[in-house]
Amino acid sequence: MHKRVKVCIRVRPASKDHAGIVVNETEKTINVLNNGNGTSFRFDGVLGSSVTQEQVFEKAAMEATESVLHGYNGTVMAYGQTGAGKTFTMTGGKSSFSDRGICARSIAMIFHAIKQDTEHTYTIRASYAEIYNEQLYDLLDFSENQQKELLIQENDKGQTFVKGLSKPLVDSEEAALDLLFQGETNRTIAEHCLNNASTRSHCIFTLHIEKHSHDDNNASIVFSKLNLVDLAGSERMKKTQVTGTMLKETTHINKSLTFLEQVVIALGDHKREHIPYRQTTLTNLLKDSLGGNCRTLLIACVWPDESQNDQTIATLKFATRMMRVKTSAIVNSQDKNLQSAKKYLDEIKRLKQELAMHDTLAGRSNIIYSIPPEAEEEMKQNVLSYITNPTQIPPIMNVNQVHVLFRLFRDIILENQVSTIEQPIILPQIEEFTKSIAIPIPSDEELKQEYANYMQTQMEEAKQNFRKAKRLVVQCATQVNVLKSEIDATSKSLTTEISDEEKDRNVSALRDTKKAYRVAFEELNKAKVEMNYMQKVKEQLITSTLSDFEIWYYY
Ligand SMILES: Nc1ncnc2c1ncn2[C@@H]1O[C@H](COP(=O)(O)OP(=O)(O)OP(=O)(O)O)[C@@H](O)[C@H]1O
Asked: Cβ(291) to ligand 1 under 6 A?
């Protein structure tokens, strides 16, 4: 479905400064005043400074969230100068529950809707990416060493995704909110002369939704995602008086927002063939949301003070250009049967690779398994030559070929019977052919011997491993006993008359010994588990060998 990006303007409360704009919510217009004149802009929605967070969600963001539940991708993106209220709009204020932003409200709406839906099962994952100084970071990577390299890649449909980004499962609204909050604490924030908690990066919180139908006649899976994007402030350097690290950040922010603007201009110009998505991480990542398979809402935040008019005009111009950007959202569904067929095809591919590897190891690397129809004709000639001359045995390379040869033989026999040729097919020759391709079957005695050898090797290994595990248990037990004696001795020393200094030393030593004792005890338990396991393996081997031989002798 072709639609254009929906654009709403949100006006934050004014400071004490003179108001520099006139807002008309009904007409959906904003007039930026300039010495008695004004520049007027019209949008899909204009939300004045008294509009509540709840109303912002209902009037602007709810539609995108709803469409995600119907299988369309959705993006809600907040744009605007520093301090204009982007983070307030997306994440919300911290003072009260009613101040929560679009992210928390979208999460609540999605989980509420799926609870009501008895006809589908949902799998929901969350991801949280940050673009800071052109680098991508995983805000949900809580490991100590957050060095995982994140790369933007394209799938076979040309859609972009971040390789390596964590996407934990979220089974409840609480779990999703938990991740949102944890990710937020990882964001890059700095004090700034226009905003003392300025977010210095672009952040994208995404809910990835998989919707499985319970109806077997409609066995499909629908995939959709909701991107909630809080862009960094579109401020100009001189206005923010920044230096050092912040200057570097601002340069990167300006660069990515300039490219975002270029992409938006290119998308608005329908004669343009090339859209420069790849110029920055931001536009590359938002490729789908800008002119792709997505329903997108831009909330452009403005600061109504007269002193901010330059920035307000820049923001409103960007927002106007964004209204020209067309997107084409489609429901992303996949037939379950197709999905299992794909699974089988993957399995076949994997097995073929495995077979090729075995062939190479066995020195049979030039074997072709699939037999083309033209090769069958040649094989038929081989069979006919063999019938007349038993020394000309057809070459055999694989089981598939044996099957084809049998079929050809059968066809020849049947043909001969139908045409009642005097000399029917000569059975001894077929017998000989069968013999020539048969694998030699070992005798009963040989098999028993082979089996006995195999079991003996297994038993030897099991015994060795058991002995190793037992030695480890003894070692660990000795260590545990040594530490236990140390603990007892130190504890006892604390009950005697000793100097304070010595007491402190002993208390600290006791703490360390107890720690070492816990580690050693843990090791002892692990070693015991391994020893018991090996004991069980030994017993199992004895039992199965005995029963196999019993079967052999009695039947
Ligand atoms: N509509 C609003 N109602 C009440 N307070 C608001 C509103 N918009 C913004 N604020 C307040 O203004 C301050 C700056 O807002 P916010 O941090 O959301 O700006 P921002 O656009 O995200 O800035 P930056 O780009 O620097 O991160 C915050 O203290 C926020 O609570």
From this structure: no
